[in-house]
Amino acid sequence: MTRGFAAGQLVLRLLVLLGPLVALLATGLVGVVPAGWLVALVAVLSVAFAAMPDSPFGTAVMLVVLAWWGISLRDGLHPEAVLAAAGLVTAHVAAVLASYGPGSMPLDRGVVRLWAARGAAVLLAAPTVWVVAALLRDQPEAPGIWVAGLAAACAATLVAAVAFPLDRRS
Amino acid sequence: MSEWRATTSLSRALVVSAVGVGAAVLFGEPVLVVLTAPLLLLGALGLVHRPTAAPRVLTRLDHVALHEGQGTLSRLSLHDGHDVEHVTRVAAASPYVALHPAGGQVGRLLGEGPADLELSPRRWGRRMLGEEKVGLHTRWAGYRWGPVAVGGQEMRVLPLTAPFDSRAEAPQPLGVVGVHRSRRLGSGSEFAGIRPFQAGDRLRRINWRVSLRSDALHVETTRAEEDSGVLLVVDALADHGRSGGAEGAASSLDLTVRAAAAIAEHHVRNGDRIALRVVGRGGEKIGYGSGKAHLRMLLGTLAGMRVGEPRGFDTEALQLGVTGGTVVVVLSPMLAESIGTATATLVRRGLPVLVIDTLPPDAVPAVTDGTDPVLADLAWRMRRIEREQVLGRLSALGCPVVAWRGPGTVDDVMRRLARRAQLPRVRVR
């Protein structure tokens, strides 16, 4: 195993580093600028995430960003959230690619193309949800709508688990 | 063996999306669903493609024997791998083994063709090829198998054999059938002389022109053609200088082994009998033989020889076990006293001995850490002066000493040895 990073891996690490920061600073476009210590915290966690893409630092930095969005923009549904989602998805996908092997392993074009397409496809969920949420926002909230949604998600997960059972022999 | 485990990326997607959706439900913040919906999808797709079978991984090299500088392909075969989308192979670094892609690391989608690694040993000797770690990922990178260490295969990398086509005769052919002109008369093609006819001579040997002029039958005589016995004595007591592999600088052992391989191949092609004696830790010996199978055995022994002084090595009593009618080729940097003594003994016995000097001109001693460099340099210079004296004494005894310069090195020397072998000489026993 050689030391040093391949050129493609450096680009991936840069994307892992910048993704959470972009997601955090996106609230600044709405006029809510995060505190300096928070930016520093996210930057430190992002650096650790970029250095070790297969570590829990990624989960931690994304939860911090989520918490900031939930706390700073109470009851706000701004289109900048789509930009933040793009930052998180980019960081996640870049970390997936980086964790396929050691940092010195050159990237395969086929793998990068596949994951770029996958990232773009799943990212479409963010504007879709935002549009649906914006359309339903002014509608009177049906009692128990959130609970019903959560129950539907749980049911979907249960169906998926039953449909694709884990083979214990593996 | 390993088993499938959920990846960190899957747990990250599931944890972040679960917390985001949960917080959105609890606090009524739809923006959190916007942020986490893509991650929720990624996590769900990773879960959906859960593996159902344990794969088995095997690697195989395309070749079982290689010469230094040649390359082979390490192929990966995957059984029960229908869940696998991505393969990662990381080859272990091994001295004098070049890898392609550089670094020996390859990661690619299984559907885009085999993830093969190219390996090329750059120096003769025992080399471990194909040692690596293999990791597998399912679709959407939800689960990982490995990385698992896959054992390699030790291979005896054969030395390069430079094209070598000497036309020089062997000094003392003493065999059965061969291509070298013998000293004795026999049924060959080389003209030796004309003598009066004797009972038993073949009629087709009669020289009619001389017979008519002299009024008596005369026949032409020819020289017999025989094979020769060649003993290669390889000095493997130490390796001097730095080896850069097939295309780089050559150490003393590189020169020794490559020269021995080239000479052996040449003589085997001429139908001569070749034997090998390695003076080293392993003390490898190969008896006289000829043919391609014998050459392969010789090259394999050269590739696998162990370097260093043997235990209980008696520098005064090195016996090479040489019989008459053998040409002895000593390949050595001539830094060991025992080799010089044994060579001088053979020369005194009247055997044709050729010394091929394999010390690289720029060789420097390998010293342990903490050794005073001035002292080491002084000792090395003294050792080289002693070496020059040994080489001078051998030359004075009539033993030719040549530095290995590749094909053609021994041509002139062998011719001179062959001419000298025709002259009468006194042997010391």
Report on the architecture of this protein.
The longest helix of chain A is centred in the N-terminal third of the chain and has 19 residues, at about 5-25. The two termini of chain A are about 30 Å apart. In chain A, helix 1 (about 5-25) runs antiparallel to helix 2 (about 35-50) and helix 2 runs antiparallel to helix 3. Chain A has helices spanning about 5-25, 35-50, 55-70, 80-100, 110-125, 125-135, 145-165. Chain A is mostly helical. In chain A, about 70% of the residues lie in helices and about 0% in strands. Chain B is about 30% helix and about 30% strand. In chain B, the strands form 5 sheets. A 6-stranded mixed sheet of chain B has the order 17-16-15-18-19-20, with helices on both faces. The model of chain B has no long low-confidence stretch (mean pLDDT about 85). Chain B folds into 4 domains: about 5-50, no CATH class; about 55-155, Immunoglobulins (Immunoglobulin-like); about 180-225, no CATH class; about 230-420, Rossmann fold (3-Layer(aba) Sandwich). Chains A and B meet through helix 3, helix 4, helix 5, helix 6 and helix 7 of A and helix 1, helix 2, strand 4 and strand 6 of B.
